[in-house]
Request: fold
Amino acid sequence: MSNDETPSDISPVDPEKPSVARAYDWYLGGSTNTPIDRAFAERILTVLPPAKTMAVDNRNFLRRAVTYLVDAGVRQFIDIGSGIPTVGNVHQVARDLAPDVKVAYVDNDPVAVTQSRLLLRDDPATTVIDADLRHPGAILDHQDTRALLDFEQPIALLMIAVLHFIPDRDDPAGIVAAYRDALPRGSYLALSHLTDETAPPELRQQVRTCINLYQNSASPLVARTRATLAQWLDGLDLVPPGVTVANQWKPDSTPRSGPDHDLVIAGLARLQQERS
Reply:
C-alpha cells in the first residue's frame, strides 16, 4: 500500500489491550496513546523505573546511528518496528544532513501504521509497510519497498528495540541472517536490545518482573546478552565500539533523562562489499 492510498485495510485496534508501540510513544513524550496504554506504561515504571530512560536511550542510539550512516554515504533506510511517528524519526534525522534520503517504515501495530501513513502521505520519499519482521521476504520484496529503494545500492536496516519482542522459538538469529543475506553488499544492520546481564540483583529482579508483565501484552519480552547480539552480527564488520551499552555507543553530550542503567545494548555492523 502506498502513502497516498486510504488506509482502509488496517486491522481494527483492540481498545482493551495495551500497545507496546503506543506505550513507547508515551515514554518519548508523544500523544498518540490511550488511557490503557498510559496505565500500562506507568505500571511498567513502578516495577522498572529506568523504562522511560531506556526508551530515550534507544531513540538517541537511533539518532546517532542514522547520523553515522548518512555521514558514511547511506541514503536508503528500512526501519523495522518503527512505531508511532514521534520527534526524531529516521527521515527527520537523516534529512537534516542529506535531503535525498529515502525511508521505508515497517510495523505491524495498526495504530503505528495508520499514524505513520497519515503523517507521511505527502512524502514521496517514504513508504509505510504493514508487516511482521519475522517474515523478511514480505518486507524486502514488498512492492512498495522495491518501488522506493534501489537494491543495487547500500541500505541501512534498523531494528531498534524490537528483537526483544521475538521469542527464541521464532529463531531471531535466523531472522537477522535472512535480512543480512538479502541486503545489497555494503549495507548495514543496526540493532538495539534489552539486556540484564550486568544489572545488579535488585535491578535484574525489576527486569524479570517487567518481563512477566509484558506476557499479558501483545508483545512478550525477552532479555538477551551482548554475546547473543554479537553472534547475530557474526561475519559482518562491526562499527567501533562494537556491541555495547547503547548510551556508550559513540556518545554525545545529550543529557540523561532518568536513572542510570545498563539495560539497553546496541551495535551497528556493515556487510562486506564482496561476498566471501
Observations:
- Residues 1-11 have pLDDT under 50 and may be disordered.
- DSSP finds ten helices and eight strands in the chain.
- The first strand starts at residue 76 and ends at 80.
- The chain has one domain: 20-270.
